[in-house]
């Protein structure tokens, strides 16, 4: 195992400093050769993670023909953004308007923020110059059980479908739980009072009535993913009370499956960009997650499409500020991000060069950065004063990612 001083020397040898996003072009060019570029983040509330990912995304779309962006967000909310940037949503007056109205469930700041407004504005303008299929914006997450069922009902009503009755029965089954996932999870896990039969009946009815035969219409993609969310969200909430690890796996398998559906919609040669937390896009097999039986999107996509078709870029920061909350559901606040702890990945990058920098892991240097080292991860719930006791993931960086972007001093993003 390399000593810290040796790792610092190797970083000095291979890292590239940058002062503006335009200087990331060599990294973008390398990433552009694959089917899916996975862009991470070490928190859900750091401005630079969003702005740098946005610039990489623009380059991949404009210069390398990438077709869509898929993010760690709910499908129904992101689909409204998708409609807006494609000129199909006249009810929204601006990017800020669609984000405010669509991302109104906690933690809304993840997507309803000033940084995303600028990206949505750019996507809207870019799509106006395009013919054929326009650039899409989609959500991969599994949390939107009630919203997805409502979208299914709306779709079936417009088609006067025989499956509508089953959809209404499924919603009626979930009504007593008042849109509170934990309430449903407790009922399903401990009292055997669940809605799995109603969900399965709904899905069977949809397929039996051939509601999703065509792959040409985006409204049918919307229906297909909402049906997938309904099934997997029920499974997720049913499981989360009793098995954290299995519920994590349900969620990441769902995100990988949703990504595959979107890829199929855009065609065999389509290329996509994924925005998710490092814990989702970095290969779980290169961390202690694997020993706990956990999988993630980075692992599943490399397994399904081949490592040569995936390029995962991790992100991190040495110190700064971040938007997060002290517990689930409470108002967000600006919190300090302490200096990286001794011996951490963040600290050795800082020692090597106290500046923004990136590393590309190649055949030449991959073995150098294969030692296990702690790497910071901040969630929507964060306690800076205790972060040394649980916010560092033991990682083999060159196996977890294909490249890494380090922000020396970061700032909190700007919620709407």
Please provide a written account of the structure.
The strands form 2 sheets. Strands 1, 2, 3, 4, 5, 6, 7, 8 and 11 form a 9-stranded mixed beta sheet that branches. Strands 9-10 form a two-stranded antiparallel sheet. The longest helix is centred in the middle third of the chain and has 23 residues, at 218-240. The chain is α/β, with parallel strands linked by helices. Helices cover 46% and strands 16% of the residues. A hairpin with an 8-residue loop joins strand 6 and strand 7. The protein contains 16 helices and 11 strands. It has 2 domains: 4-66 and 277-410, EreA-like (biosynthetic domain) (EreA/ChaN-like  fold); 145-264.
In helices, the fraction of residues equals 40-55%
User: CATH topology of the largest domain, anyone?
Assistant: EreA/ChaN-like  fold
Model regions low in confidence, pLDDT < 50 over at least 5 residues: none
Spatial extent as radius of gyration: 21 Å
**Secondary-structure element string:** HEHEHEHHHEHHHHHHEHHEEHEEEHE
CATH first level of the largest domain: Alpha Beta
Content of β-strand: 15-25%
Q: CATH homologous superfamily of the largest domain - what is it?
A: EreA-like (biosynthetic domain)
Number of domains: 2
Q: pLDDT average, as an integer?
A: 95
Overall body shape: globular
CATH architecture of the largest domain: 3-Layer(aba) Sandwich
Number of H/I helices: 16
What does the largest sheet look like?
A: 9 strands, mixed
Number of E strands? 11
Query: In whole angstroms, how far apart are the ends?
Result: 46 Å
Structural class: alpha/beta
Protein name: Erythromycin esterase family protein
Pfam families: Erythro_esteras (PF05139)
GO biological process, one term: response to antibiotic
Organism: Niallia endozanthoxylica
């Amino acid at each position: 195992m390399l000593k810290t001083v040796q790792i610092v020397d190797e970083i000095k040898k291979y890292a590239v400093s940058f002062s503006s996003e335009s200087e990331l072009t060599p990294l973008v060019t390398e990433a552009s050769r694959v089917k899916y570029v996975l862009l991470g983040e070490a928190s859900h509330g750091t401005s630079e993670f969003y702005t740098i990912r946005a610039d990489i995304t623009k380059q991949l779309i404009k210069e390398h023909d990438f077709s869509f962006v898929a993010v760690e967000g709910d499908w129904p909310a992101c689909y409204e953004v998708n409609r807006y940037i494609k000129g199909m949503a006249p009810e929204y007056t601006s990017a800020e308007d669609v984000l405010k109205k669509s991302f109104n469930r906690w933690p809304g700041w993840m997507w309803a923020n000033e940084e995303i407004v600028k990206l949505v504005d750019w996507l809207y303008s870019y799509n106006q110059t395009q013919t054929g299929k326009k650039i899409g914006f989609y959500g991969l997450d599994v949390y939107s059980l009630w919203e997805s069922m409502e979208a299914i009902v709306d779709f079936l009503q417009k088609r006067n479908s025989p499956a509508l009755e089953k959809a209404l029965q499924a919603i009626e089954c979930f009504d007593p739980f008042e849109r509170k996932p934990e309430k449903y999870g407790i009922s399903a896990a401990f009292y055997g009072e669940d809605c799995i039969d109603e969900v399965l009946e709904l899905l069977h009815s949809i397929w039996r009535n051939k509601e999703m035969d065509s792959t040409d219409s985006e409204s049918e993609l919307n229906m297909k993913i909402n049906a997938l969310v309904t099934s997997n969200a029920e499974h997720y909430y049913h499981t989360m009370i009793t098995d954290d690890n299995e519920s994590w796996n349900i969620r990441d398998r769902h995100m990988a499956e949703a990504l595959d559906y979107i890829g199929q919609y855009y065609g065999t040669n389509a290329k996509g960009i994924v925005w998710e937390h490092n814990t989702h896009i970095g290969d779980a097999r290169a961390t202690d997650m694997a020993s706990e039986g956990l999988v993630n999107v980075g692992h599943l996509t490399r397994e399904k499409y081949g490592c040569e078709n995936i390029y995962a870029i991790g992100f991190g920061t040495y110190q700064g500020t971040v938007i997060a909350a002290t517990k689930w559901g409470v108002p967000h606040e600006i919190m300090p991000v302490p200096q990286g702890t001794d011996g951490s990945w963040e600290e050795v990058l800082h020692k090597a060069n106290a500046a923004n920098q990136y590393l590309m892991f190649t055949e030449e240097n991959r073995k150098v950065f294969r030692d296990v080292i702690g790497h910071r991860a901040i969630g929507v719930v964060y306690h800076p004063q205790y972060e040394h006791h649980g916010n560092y993931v033991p990682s083999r960086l060159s196996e977890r990612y294909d490249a890494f972007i380090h922000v020396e001093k970061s700032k909190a993003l700007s919620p709407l």
